[in-house]
Structure formats: structure tokens, C-alpha cells
Design goal:
The chain has 14 helices and 17 strands. The strands form three sheets. Strands 5, 6, 7, 8, 10, 12, 13, 14, 15, 16 and 17 form an eleven-stranded antiparallel sheet that branches. A four-stranded parallel sheet has the order 2-1-3-4, with helices on both faces. A two-stranded antiparallel ribbon has the order 9-11. It is of the alpha+beta class. It has two domains: 159 residues, Rossmann fold; 159 residues, Tumour Suppressor Smad4, CATH 2.60.200. The longest helix is centred in the N-terminal third of the chain and has 39 residues. Keywords: ATP-binding, Kinase, Lipid metabolism, Membrane, Mitochondrion, Mitochondrion inner membrane, Nucleotide-binding, Transferase. Pathway: Lipid metabolism; glycerolipid metabolism. Its cofactor is Mg(2+). Belongs to the AGK family.
């Protein structure tokens, strides 16, 4: 033993390296073991759903999974097959996987839509938006799409919706398992959608919102400073201040106020009356004298208009702060003053990376159901719509309230209802 200790002491550099390597390897193996235990427990829970008896006349529920293999730096496919796919199959779902690895899949997706009971989007924010654009090219299509529940399995770098739908977790495997089990359990919540229409005929749909300004532009460049480690976010915003200061984004904004929320529509279809009742009603309406038409006055829409000069403008849904009992429908328009100092800009940039649509103190916040954003001629730059980049242009943004139903962890739904009661 003394000889071993002497040898280790004389080769202390190698000893230190070996101890660090063994510690890292042991920690890695323990993490893998814990992940396997999580998978096993989740599969057992899903198996309980799969073992439930169903009538022979009732077909299996069909689930269409839109998987983006390129998400999470190409690891999404492996993450899905290892953590989510076994749970879905054990739960008794008839699963079809569609890889969204090329553009122009709208026709194929629309054909699948006719034969599916639920949709599962496996990827990040970009995958969510890609599927929305393919499946919602018009108001008629989104009306059909809104009747099908949607599941979201967070596999991408940015997964904004997961903050609303699932509990926070630092373990990626646990997070994916929570999302998949939420789909199996079947609890849903309604989410708003923004329809953003520019000069092009095809509108863009968003579940989070639109950003235009200096914080968004600096946030896009953070990855360029990867070599600075934890300082990369502050560096991106610091170097952004070298441009002309203060950075002003000028536009004209017209908007309509919130709208009253209509009552929830019953899920079940009303029973059809008997044939003789329908015939009687039709004959009565045919022989009765036509009612006199009373001209109704059309109430003009009360548009508000303002000129703005801001360091950033954001138009966001209320999905992040979901309130299931609110009586009005609106989106949040946040106009951040362009009077911030360079130091405030750098510090606030880090907060914006964590919560892009936060509205800082001193900003103007407007609740609107519809707005028109007019940009000066020759305006350059880009919008960020659900973390995807689009050319900045005049746009009309319309709120489509409670348009989509997403599967949600029952614990999160319970928290929403509890917070609303308080």
C-alpha cells in the first residue's frame, strides 16, 4: 500500500487526471442509469393505458407524428425513438411518423390530416411553425385543423410552448417523457394563434408572437460568440451598441381593442331531429310570409392609431400566461422606449434571451385583438416570428382566439385553474 501511495504521489498529474476521468465516467454512468429508470417507469405507466379494454367496433386511435430529424443538432430522431416512441406504442396508439426533412410537404400532410385522430409535433419552435404553415394555408383549413388535438414533444434547441404545457425540468429525458405522457393522458388546453399577413398572399401563423427590434437582432448573433462561453450573450448585446445609438425602430400602428370571449362550444354535436319534424319545419318556413327586413346599422370599427419609435416592438399571444377563465380575448403589444442606456440594453438583453416577450417597466403595453403595422419605406431588418426569421414589411396581425387545442400535463392545467380561482 505504501508503494502504491508513493507511486501515485510521484505521478500526481496522471493521478489527478485519472481521478477526474473516473469521477466523470461514474457520474455519466449514473446519469444513464437514472434515465433508464425514468424510461422504465414511463413505459409501465403507458402500458396501463394500453391494457384498457375497448369495444371491438371501436378502431385504434391514429396518431400522426411530424418529426424533424434535424432538430437538436441532428439528435432529434434518436431522442424520439429512445424516449417517446416506446411510450406512444405501449399506450395503444396507431402511430405514423412523417419526417419533415424537406420543404413543400403540404400536400402530403393534408392527405394525412383526413385519417388521423391526433397530431404530434416532435421538434422545436421551427417544427411547430413549419407544420402550422403547411396545415393552415387558409381559414377553412385551420377550422378543420382546430378540431384535432395536438401534442408537442420538445426536441429542439428552442421549445417555447413547453414552458406553458409541461413542468420545468433540467433533465431532457424527463422533459420528453413528461410531454409524451401528457399526450397519452389526454388533457388539453386551448391556445391562441396569430395570423400575420404581409404583402404576400400566404399568411404566417404563430403561437408565440412577433418581435422586431434591437434585442431580437442581437439575440440572433449570440451563437457567433460561442468561444466566450457564459459571456457570449452579454458580448453580442455589447457589440450591438457600437451601431448608431440610440437604435430607433419607427412605425405607425393601428389597432382594435380586446373582444369579448364567447361561451365555450359544446364538444358533442346536437342530436338531429326526426324526419317528420324537419319536414314540418321546412314546409312552415316555405308557406310563411317572408319577414320584413329591418336595416341594421353597421357599427364602424373603433381603430386607434399611434406613431411609435421603439428599441423593440413585440406582439405576443397570451399563451405564456394562459388564463382559462378570462372573459376577453386579446394579444399583448409591447412598445419598448428607445431611451435605454447602453448598460441597460446589455443587462436587459440577458433577460430577453430567457423570456423574449417580456415587457420591461416603462414600456407601453397595449391589449388588442387586431393590429396593422406600417413601416416607413425602405425599412430594413427582419422580424422574428416564433423564433423564425422573416423579412420586415408592413403586416396585419389578427388574433385567432382558442384556435388550437394542445395536450397539456394535468399538473400544469390544475395550476392554471388554481391560479385563476385565486
Amino acid at each position: 500500500a505504501a508503494r502504491v501511495l508513493a507511486t501515485l504521489r510521484s505521478h500526481w498529474k496522471k493521478t489527478t487526471f485519472g481521478v477526474c476521468l473516473l469521477s466523470w465516467g461514474g457520474n455519466w454512468l449514473y446519469g444513464k442509469h437514472c434515465d433508464n429508470l425514468l424510461r422504465r417507469a414511463a413505459c409501465q405507466e403507458a402500458q396501463a393505458f394500453g391494457n384498457q379494454l375497448i369495444p371491438s367496433s371501436m378502431p385504434l386511435k391514429k396518431a400522426t407524428v411530424f418529426l424533424n430529424p434535424a432538430a437538436c443538432k441532428g439528435k432529434a430522431r434518436n431522442l424520439f425513438e429512445k424516449n417517446a416512441a416506446p411510450i406512444l406504442h405501449l399506450s395503444g396508439l396507431d402511430v405514423t411518423v412523417v419526417k419533415t426533412d424537406y420543404e413543400g410537404q403540404a400536400k402530403k400532410l393534408l392527405e394525412l390530416m383526413e385519417n388521423t385522430d391526433l397530431i404530434i409535433i416532435a421538434g422545436g419552435d421551427g417544427t411547430v411553425q413549419e407544420v402550422l404553415q403547411d396545415l393552415c394555408p387558409g381559414s377553412l383549413r385551420i377550422a378543420v385543423f382546430s378540431k384535432i388535438p395536438i401534442g408537442f414533444i420538445p426536441l429542439g434547441k428552442t421549445c417555447t410552448l413547453s414552458h406553458t404545457l409541461y413542468p420545468e425540468s433540467t433533465n431532457q429525458v424527463q422533459h420528453i417523457i413528461n410531454a409524451t405522457l401528457a399526450i397519452v393522458k389526454g388533457e388539453t388546453v386551448p391556445l391562441d394563434v396569430l395570423q400575420i399577413k404581409g404583402e404576400k398572399e400566404q399568411p404566417v401563423y404563430a403561437v408565440t408572437g412577433l418581435r422586431w427590434g434591437s434585442y431580437r437582432d442581437a439575440g440572433v448573433k449570440v451563437s457567433k460568440y460561442w468561444y466566450l462561453g457564459p459571456l457570449k450573450t452579454k458580448a453580442a448585446h455589447f457589440f450591438s451598441t457600437f451601431k448608431e445609438w440610440p437604435q430607433k425602430h419607427q412605425a405607425a400602428l393601428m389597432y382594435l381593442g380586446p373582444t369579448e370571449r364567447p361561451p365555450e362550444e359544446p364538444e358533442g354535436k346536437p342530436s338531429r331531429p326526426p324526419l317528420y319534424v324537419r319536414l314540418y319545419r321546412r314546409l312552415r318556413s316555405y308557406w310563411s310570409s317572408p319577414p320584413k327586413e329591418i336595416p341594421q346599422e353597421v357599427t364602424p370599427e373603433d381603430w386607434e392609431e399611434l406613431k411609435l419609435s421603439a428599441i423593440e416592438l413585440s406582439i405576443a399571444t397570451r399563451n405564456r400566461q394562459l388564463d382559462l377563465t378570462r372573459t376577453e380575448d386579446f394579444m399583448d403589444i409591447c412598445i419598448e422606449a428607445d431611451t435605454v442606456s447602453k448598460g441597460q440594453f446589455v443587462n436587459r438583453g440577458s433577460q430577453k434571451m430567457r423570456d423574449p416577450h417580456m415587457c420591461p417597466e416603462g414600456s407601453q403595453c397595449i391589449h388588442a385583438s387586431r393590429c396593422i403595422l406600417q413601416l416607413p419605406e425602405g425599412t430594413e431588418g427582419s422580424f422574428g416570428i416564433d423564433n423564425e426569421e422573416y423579412e420586415a414589411m408592413p403586416v396585419e396581425v389578427k388574433l385567432l382566439p382558442r384556435k388550437l387545442r394542445f395536450f397539456c400535463d394535468p399538473r400544469m392545467r390544475e395550476q392554471m385553474l388554481h391560479a385563476a380561482v385565486q
